[in-house]
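Section 5.1 Outputs to date
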Amino acid sequence: DRMLVTTDVLIRSAGVAPFEDGVDFTPGQLFGGNTGFTFDLGASYRVTPKLEVMASVLDLGTIHFTKDLRDRSSKGTYEFTGLEFNAVDGDVNDQTIGDQLDSTFGFTETDGIAYSRALTNRYFIGASYELTKNHAFQGTYNLNRWDGLNFHNASLGYVGTYGKGFQLMLNWNMINSTFMNFGGGFGLDMG
């Protein structure tokens, strides 16, 4: 029931120090003083009276972390025998799970150095086709790029109006290569 665990972990945080126990909070600390920029672009175009296409690029930018920087790290091989946990208050013998992980894996905390981080870029393309006045189909493809990794998502949907006040919505989604995501809903116009 013991494992040897090898770690090489660096956890960076910025702007969290004002919220730690024993530190007085002032309203000026809410955003931490870390700065950056981002911009979004989007467009839609009606190809025909029944077909509309759209595209957007979101969160192109970077944040520069320079204030209240902390680095927590663990590097080495450690013997792990498990964690104790009390579901009522989250503590065991006045130790939180975080305290247990710190002591088990030799985590140390140091003042961090300034760094910059690109935001997760999000790209969307989509189309909407109005088959009739009461029936429409939509499709969307989404690519999220983070740290050189690509995450693909897609969605197909149907919206139908039946009678004077009933609307039916059906949806299928592919999220991160998981294909069995279905949704549905309805709307009633009671007025």
